[in-house]
């Protein structure tokens, strides 16, 4: 490692006295190199993370680790520390994310105020080396303490153990001290805006909400009552990403064919504002479902129609004029489900086979590519639904309620650009036979 600042001070003093050191080619170059004076050293300091690696729960909790740095004797002047974290890529489902995208550090020196010290890519976004968080500059002292506060998003749970390096010196160079700083990422409940909800209407017309936890071992919280009177509707479908923060809209068609719009309130205890009338005539459709924030409707002839949301998003005029998306053939499906999280659609045919559809834009509007077979056996369920993300996998999950009232979860996977259910499932509830609608 580099010499201490005492060596640098000695050189400066020599120059001030008019003596040119040998390394600079002065008169003293022909003289023998003197022995180091007492107390001079080339050793570096130490870096100690108190308590060892920091456990970082992904989600709402903020945690702090303290690192104590002991500098070499005689170190002086301003020093800076830099935390270097490796580029940890996630290749799950074909996605790639560096760790720095999902953790937010802030830093404090010697008990001072915290300030943001975001991880930055020295390569300008090329991700060719460690990402760096720069600490505030401070004056050299025998010991310096650095507190590093970490808030991790939901995706940080993908990483387990990550070890970085804290370098301390002039401009963050490791000329005074360098040592490891470790982080262990763990599952935790994500913030409300990152957790989905499942809605269920019982046979008395009461609508219930189940908040997702984002945790794989227990994906749903206990139900909460939204309100009664929902048996007035023959079809209910969500629009957009419905979250535990009260986000996400809903449309419902009554028995007279009138469509009503429920705007998300942003209040998790009362997630919808009072309904607003959209218009009549919607009983020409045999199925309603979502395509992101937009609406899909199948008519009695099996044609699928697309209703785009209006740019202004007015509750009384939430949709533009309809567009034909697929001309006929959709009567072959007993269930049509929009993914909600994006643009994909899945449909179950009368033989129980589940199909996936990817849409694309043409000059004459939005169309579907050729369907892809997901798998058979889905007629085991009398209700199926697509959830935004119950398992924390960042892809849409699927629910199936069987005829005995058991609720099954399929943790979604990415295939061919679509989020589709895998062959494996696990039971996450019972007694769901009391509901006639699950979404």
Automatic annotation (TrEMBL):
Give yes or no: UniProt keyword Ligase: no
So which residues are the signal peptide here? 1-22
By its UniProt entry, which SUPFAM superfamilies does this protein fall under? Fucose-specific lectin
Superkingdom, natural source: Bacteria
InterPro entries per UniProt: TAT_signal
Q: Which UniProt keywords apply?
A: Signal
In its keyword annotation, does this UniProt entry include Signal?
A: yes
Tell me what this protein is called. Answer: Tachylectin
Source species of the chain: Streptomyces zaomyceticus
What lineage does the source organism belong to? Bacteria, Bacillati, Actinomycetota, Actinomycetes, Kitasatosporales
